[in-house]
Structures are given as structure tokens and as C-alpha cells.
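Researcher: Watch the backbone:
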Amino acid sequence: MNARRAVVIGAGPAGLLAAAALSPAVDEVVVLDRDELPEGPEHRTGVPQSRHAHLLMPGGMDAMEELLPRAGLRAELLAAGARETALSRDMVALTPVGWFRRWRHRSHVTITSSRPLLEWVVRRAVLRCGENVRIRRARVTGLRGSARRVTGVRLADPDGGPTQDLDADWVVEAGGRGTRLLTWLDTIGVHGVRERGVDSGLANATRVYRVPDGARDWPMTLIQADPWSGRPGRSAMIVPIEHGRWMVSLGGMRGSEPPKDPEGFVDYALGLPSPLVGRLIRAAEPLGPVHVSRSTSNSRRYLEDAPVWPEGFVVLGDAAATFNPIYGQGMSVAAHGALALARALREDGIGTPGLARRVQRAVGRAADGAWTMAVSTDVLYPGVEGGRATPGDRMAAAYSQRLTRAATGSYAAAAALWDVTTLRTPPSRLFRPDALLHSLAGPPLPALAGPPLTAAEQAFLSGIG
């Protein structure tokens, strides 16, 4: 029998995890990327969100560990400097309806690090565990094959060399937001793919700081945007990352974008409903400039509904669906998509007729929850492009507001919200009897007058004025 080869387009987390899924099923996996990949955890030009805050949700971590069971991925990340944040007790968060409390429970543990560190650790793990995986620098210019089957890809040398064809038994497109997927599909005869985009106009502004003396274990800090006010949303977050640093991201929807100049950056944070983030970064040493990105829209290609779908071809990650990064779910959705591919290959075998279409439908289901949460919130902001709030969106928003208010004084209600936002459970979790009861009853504890800080944290804050 001829050796089977799989090709993955894109060496970001989605592509690397796709390679991990394919590795046991084929003789060779070739991962293609147009960037020269760095030897260590460094930024690269092909990742527009690389310099902004990233969260690896518990649901995403679980999926990655199932994909790479021998890698010890969590331990590798922590050894490289990534941080663990239990949302239940290691987070200070102001919601539009009040401060969340901090509980004694240690639950919903989220990994925080820079994007380059996460990608570098995952890449090393995939190459170590998948001995048949190799990465090659190349620019993909199209697919080979027909609407019935994809048989490979067309390559252009990034440095201007001749065009080449690379045969493959299976191709995964995981090339990210900048994909030319629909053009490639049209070329091989796959037409009629429905698209939807919803753009709140979010601008992300991020700066890295050295953690001040006395704040080494400061909790992740979040000032949430308010989708219910009728005004442009504004938000801020302090995310602890490797090497004793904070990654501070400010977000502003269309009409309230954060500035890029350093003084304006701090002033914007001080002007939020709580000045907490602004006070903290005013006392911290900046380690670089402010980086701004507007590559933040929600965009989905409903590939699972295409009239025809070729054998041997699957689309994962941002190439299939992108989400407003303010919700922090993109990498975790990509991990669930790769896990759906791995499970299908284990159960059915790579040559099973119709497998690619079944996998693509599973990838769509994996994205449904995050897509619904992101879009049903973003359409509430003024000036949004690509959609208006429906009566169903407004009903969902009203329910979400009630449940969030209950969560400010109830661990059980907060846990229900975190179960969904961290992709541990589908959104239907919010409509179980216990969650409905919490939303009706409201918070059993009174609202907090200020952020829930420990004595040591309060002393530090008082000391910086």
C-alpha cells in the first residue's frame, strides 16, 4: 500500500493540533506555513493577535490533553512560565451588574501566557509526540482536486521560487483569519458556501508591564464591557504571563476605541467604571509600546451546510469561524475542532467515505456555542455591522443579565456561567433548572461595594496611591 500523507495548512495552534490528530492515522504529516518559525517563544508576523492577551480555557486545555495524552502539556506550559488562574478565586472581575466575589473553591482553572509561548510549547509537544510530523516553510496558493475529492495543494516558494504541487490523501486548512478558502473552493467547483460576519468595531490596545514589587501574585483583573447600556462597550484586563509580567489589554467598541499613546492608554483605563486597572498600570514599569489591532470581527463560513463537500478536506480554527477575541475562546474552539477530527479518525479510519463531511459538521457544532455567545452579545452594541439584535437576542441578553447578577453573590450561579464561557459545557447548561432558579432568585449575598481584594492586595493598592 502506498504511504499516506496528510497536509496541514498553518502552523498556529489549530494547525499543530490538527497535525496531532492526523499523526496516528497516516505515515507522514506535513505542516505548511509561510512564516519562518522562530526557535523559541517569539512573535511572528503572520499572527495579527500575537501581541494581545490570550486565555486557554479549561475546555480547550482538556481537548489538547486528550489530543496529546503523552505530552504532559499542562506541566510543560507551567514549566515554561505560563500561569494558572482559577476563575473562582484568582480573578477580580467587575461585571456590568457588580463585582464577582472570590470563593474558596479552586475551579475553572485557566492557563494564561503570551501567545508565542503557548504556540512554542504546543509545537514542541506535537513534534515530540508525532515523530512523523514535519514543518515546512511554503505559501499555499490553492487546492488540487475537484468537488468530489481534494488530492493535494499548490505551493509557491515564499522567497520567489517555482510553483510546486504537493500530493496528499488528506488536507486540513487551518490558515487563520487571512484564509483564501472560498476562492480555493470555487476553483475546484465547491460553490454556495454561506458566510456571516458581525463586527462590533472592537479595537484592542495592549501593552506589557513588569509586575511591580509587592504584586507578584496579583490576580487576573477584568473590567467587563457593558452590552446592555446602549453605549459603545469598553473593557480592560490584566493577564499575568511568564517572566513576571502583566499583559494589559484595553478594548473599545466602535466609537470608543482606546488610544495608542502611552498617556492616553493609562487615562482610558482610569476612566472605566472602575479605575482599578489604570491605578495598577500607573504604578508598573512598561516594557514596550502599545500595540493596537482591529482584526476582531466575528466571521463564520457555514461549510457544514455546503451543497457538496470534497472527501479528504477539513477546515479548522479561524479559517472556519473567528470570534471577537475579547471573549477568549478562539484557541479552545480550535482545539475542540481538532479533537473532533481525531475522534472521527479513530472510530472510522481515514479512508471512510463521507468522513470529511461528518468531521466538518462536528467542527461546526464545536463552534456553535462560542459563536452564539459572541454574536448575540456583539449585536447589542451600537454601530455593529453585519447584524441587528433580534427579539431572541434581547431575550437572551435579559436572561444573561439576570443570571450574571445572581452570579455576583452565588458560587453556583457563577459556576454555571463559567462552565459555558470556558467551553466545558454547551450553552444549554444555562437553562438547566438550577441555573433558571438562580436567575429568578437573584444573588443571595449583598452586592460588593468594591473589588474583593485580600488584605495584602488592599495594602499594596493603598501604597501606590
About this structure: The chain has 13 helices and 22 strands. Residues 254 and 276 are 23 Å apart (CA to CA).
